[in-house]
């Protein structure tokens, strides 16, 4: 089983408008709700590929109950620690005329120390059958910046593999616990290292440096240009052919899901990159909050371009 952690889940409200006009009254023509959060999306993508998974995290209020209902309808296993404050709602506004998307994200509920302690205990119990834990996303108020360091350290002591997908001080602190894999995008890697990454050579050096900082594998995603991965011994670039993008929501999480599946199977780095990019590519082809479909992933797998870099 692959367990996922979402400390700051959200009830996403996806709103479609045709011709968004700033500073004017706009009318939407479709609205859908979605159980959001990076770890939850990883679980959804893992489940779509036929692997067992459980989503863990913190939920509260009516929004939290709606998220559980949505996950139950999708057949996804979950266990969320209850909190007193309501889970956040986020808004995704998609302009069907320009095909541009605007996200409005809330910071999240404040987590009390006893609630966080209960979450640690719940996660250890619920992930007992899991050999790999994916920890993703932002951290709500009240949670210390060392939270991912603590979670990864506990997981390592129990012999579990870990993947970390976060940013800022949470990524910096989490790296100290030596996760098996981290996946920043270029902007997040620039923030971590304190410099611009404008060329492929600079991105390669950045991936190597992140490995030296504690990551077993550093994967830097480059959007439509694919990704560069380094495990300290080899550097691989993986990319796909151009596709018409319908939505980028969940593409990075689907890529992480691909790496999680590959780590769980003991695949080579090249195979992991291939599956990660195939799942990310299949996701951008789907509309709104929809993630990859297994048949699309199978189509893309042999079409992913792999290059070994010096």
Question: What can you tell me about this protein's structure?
Answer:
It contains ten helices and 14 strands. Helix 9 packs across helix 10 (294-300). The chain is globular. By secondary structure, it is of the alpha/beta class. Helix 2 (61-74) links the parallel strand 4 and strand 5.
List keywords for this structure.
310 residues
Please tell me the overall pLDDT: 94
The DSSP helix count reads: 10
Largest sheet, described in full?
Answer: 10 strands, mixed
**Could you give the order of the helices and strands?**
EEEHEHEEEHEHEHEHHEEEHHHE
Poorly predicted regions are none
Approximately how much helix is present in the residues?
Answer: 25-40%
Structural class of the helix and strand makeup? alpha/beta
Query: Gap between N and C termini, in Å?
Result: 35 Å
DSSP strand content: 25-35%
How would you summarize this macromolecular structure in one to three sentences?
This protein is an alpha/beta fold and 310 residues long.
